[in-house]
Every structure is written in structure tokens, then in C-alpha cells.
Hints:
The structure holds two protein chains of two kinds.
Chain A: H1 9-31, H2 38-43, H3 50-61, H4 64-77, H5 83-109, H6 114-122, H7 125-157, H8 164-213, H9 215-226, H10 236-253, H11 257-265, H12 269-279, H13 287-300, H14 306-309, H15 312-321, H16 328-362, H17 371-395, H18 401-423, H19 429-448, H20 465-496
Helix pairs in contact in A: 1-8, 3-8, 3-11, 3-12, 3-16, 4-13, 4-16, 5-10, 5-12, 5-18, 6-7, 6-18, 7-8, 7-16, 7-17, 7-18, 8-9, 8-13, 8-15, 8-16, 8-17, 9-13, 10-18, 15-16, 16-17, 18-19, 18-20, 19-20
Chain B: E1 14-15, E2 18-19, H1 20-49
Antiparallel strand pairs in B: 1-2
Amino acid sequence: MNNAPLLSSGGIIFMGIYLGSLILIGFLGRIKRKEDSLSDFYLAGRNMGFFVLFLTLYATQYSGNTIVGYAGRAYREGYTVLVTVAFMMSVIGGYLLFAPKLYRLSRKLKFITVGDYIQHRYNSRVLTVIAVILLILALGNFILTNLKAIGHIVEASTGGQIPFVYGVLALSLIMVIYETLGGLRSVAWTDVIQGVILLLGCALIFIAIEYQYGGLTKTAEYFVTTNPQTWAPPTWEEKRLWLSTLLIVLFGISIYPQAIQRIYAAKDERTLKRSLQVMVFMPLVTTFFIVVIGIVGSTQMPGLSRDGSEQITLILLSDIAKNIPGIELVIILFITAAVAAIMSTVDSALLAISSLFTQDLYRPLKPNSSQHHLTYMGKLFSWVIMAVMAYLAIQLPQTIWRLMEIKLEILCQVAPAILLGLNIKNLHKRAVLSGLIVGVIVTFTIMFGDWEGILESDRPWGFHAGLWGLAANLATIGIVSILLNSGTSSRTKMLRD
Amino acid sequence: MTVPWFFTDFNGAIVLGFPLWAIYSLCMTVLYAVIIALLLGRYWKVLADENDSEENSL
Lengths: 497, 58
């Protein structure tokens, strides 16, 4: 690709300074470490204050897709994309269901990963290992698709001067360096910068576009005369899909292992509670702004292809730059915000996978390992995982975007083990394990089975395959629990008689 | 509650540049956020204490 670069030389220098500062923060994180232990490396010594915790939760939850993908979708689909505002909020509702209890338990029992909770609650290695492998698979394809996205952004930003492959390799290297230098402490501090850039970027672009194009009121006038069907409310099928999306995000994103890692890392309950209370409003100043930009863009630059619509924000900013001098700074900020959003997502997912490997898969095999050895292995896993992911991101075809879709569908199947485990007494490990297996089988069968002539899509009746899997998962848990309880009652009665 | 279930057709009403069903959805979304924030504030301790399943026998 040798198109005109989106970033000027000044912009590339700004980006270079930003990336250099991340390495510096990695070193600072290393200097500030308290001890050579998994708890210090993966949970920043369980001492994260409000400012850092809030911004790291924020930066981690919003990926590059938020600022690039949602604007494009809003351009193509109009107001129905407002569902993205609701579903980013629904995640916090998910935390409400388990964070208060899980945080308290994590303090008492020194959990490092979500696998620690599952192992403690059910005392089943099989269940823990299956759940952890599913979580790793989900996070792995998340990293893979985000690395591909970041490679394309670097290539487009530099007009092909830095090719896709070098972009992926360079940024993967930077991420794994600062991550292994300081663990969660470094990742969270870089998230602070990334979160601020993301928030500033969204707000400034929104203001610039409102100022230049007259915002939604003018857009409304345009739509009423030229494109009245845009005003139509969603159809019944779309409404069901809307509900399905809310549910799958609520159960899927809220149990992101990297989010749970941050719940464990909070300094105290008050800090965690406050962070979540503010987080719930953040879609209004992030996702909402981006959706409005996409909608306004569809009136100002109509007729773009799907690929073109994904760049609507940049196209609008370039257009505004003709009239407002100095707007180039906002373009630089936007591209940096997109890179920052992706990096904060990838580094957090990488750290979470590394912790799952070390604590839940490796440590049980080497129970007598010292904390120093385990931390060393955790860092080694990070390098290996990042190398594999970068290689796959470069080698695999673009069609792997399909993988991205299965992330939440898989995560949903692990949710009952956490949510029900925390809230229902006497939940048996066999019931949860059976539910998990059935849920995964149902999900994958719907998604990848040959249903031609039977099902119209992989979202039967407008609901995601993962939700059908979750329903089967819960039904299985219920049935197996009843069978186990009746079996126990019969044995008790026999013994009594 | 954020899904605009009851809106089946566009009736011409525009509020702040949005069709009425979109405004309904946005208002419900904000209401949802307020409720979650309040629940987090008021019931955190209750949610953390209630039915502590940590001691569950399996």
C-alpha cells in the first residue's frame, strides 16, 4: 500500500514519542515493584487506586473497534447502532452480579486469576482446566484480530512506509516489553495514558464535527427529506437481535479475565465501587459520540463503500481540515487514540492469558515452584504467546475476522460457573461441568454446523448462537442439579431407614 | 428496557435530532446507568455479604 500518509512527519514523531513513553512506563513499573511474586506482577500488589483503576478498566473495555468499527456501522445502519451505547453499559450490570462477592473472596483467599475462583469454588481440576482453556481461546483470537487491525492502521497512517508486517511486529514488541517489565502496574499506567487519549480524542472529534456540520439537528433535516427510512424503528427481528446483543455482551464482556484481574487489583471495596459507578456512564462520552459521528458522516459523505465507511471519522476530519487550520492535531490524536485503544486491549488480554497459563495450568504441575520462578515463567509465556499471535496475525488471511465473533459466544459459556457459583449454594461441580460442555457444543453446532434449509442463519430467531448455548448450559445445570439432589435425597433416606 | 419494543413506525416526531424511538432508547439507557450506579452505591455491602457461597460444601 502506497497511498498518501494519514500522518504528517510531525504526527509520526508524536506517535513515536507516545510509543517511547510506553517503554519508559514499563521501566517505571519495574522500579516500583514491591516483590518478585505473581501477586505483584499480575495484580500490581493489589493496591490500585481510583484514578488508575478507573482508567485501566475504561481503556481495557474500549477496543479499536469502538472508535473505528462503531462509526462505520453507524454510517451504514443509522440510529439502530445506538444499541452499542446500551450494551457497553450493560457490562457494568454484569459486574454488579458478581464483583462485590468476588472481590471480597479474592482478598480473603489471595486469588490471582478467575481460574483460582473456579478451582476454589468447585474443587475440580477438569472444570478449571476446561474453563481456562476456553478463556484463553477467546482472548487469543481477540489479540489476533486486534493485532491485524493495528497493523493496518500503522500501514495506512504512514502511507505504506511502514508495511503491515513491520507494524504488527514493532507494536507487538513494544507491548510485550513494557508488559514483562512491570506486569499489571506498567499495563495499568500505560492504560492511564491510553484512556486519557481515547477520551480526549472522542470528545474533540465530536465537538469538531458538531461545530463544522451543525450536528444532529441538521442531520435530521437532511434525513427527513432524503432518506426517511433511516428514521424507522428496528424491525421485530432487529429488536430481538438488539436484546440478544445486550445479553451476550452482559454475560461475555463482564467476565473478561483481564477485567476480573482488575477487580482483584483494586486497593479496597470503595475504590472498586466508585470506579464501576463512573464506568457505567462512560459510553455516553465515548460510544455515543462515535455513533453520532458515523450518523452525521452518512449525511455529509454519502455513498461510501463498506471499507470507506470504516474510515468515516478520518474522512470527516480531513474535510474539516480544509476549513479549520490546526485540525491536523485532532487527526493525529484520533489515530493515536485508535492505536492506544487497541494496544490497551491487547496488552491486557496478553497479561490475562499469561496469568491463566502460569497460575492455572503451569503452577499445578509444579506446585513447589518459588514465586520468583513462577513470575519468570509468566514473563516467558508472555513472550511466547505474543510471538505466536504476531506470527498468526501476519500469516492468517483476513477471513479470521470471523473468529472475533466467537469470542463472546465462548465467554458466555463460562459465565454460569462464576455467576451461579457465587450466588447459589449447593451448586455441584458436575452440574456446572455438564452445562459448560453442552453449552459449548450447542454454540459451535449452531455456528459452524451445516444448517442449510433448516436454520436461516447462525442467529436463529434473532438470537446469537452463544445465547442458545447459554440457555442449554443453564438448562443442563438445572437438570443435572435436580438429578444429583434427588440421588442424594434417596441415599439419605435409605441410610435413615 | 432499552429496546424500543413499542415503536413500530416513525410518526414524524423528532427530538434533539433523534427519532422518538431513539430518544426513548437513549433515555432508558441513561436511566439504566443511574439505577446501576445507585445499586452499586447502596447495595454493595449487601451483595457482598448475602449468601456467602465461599463456605459451600460440594
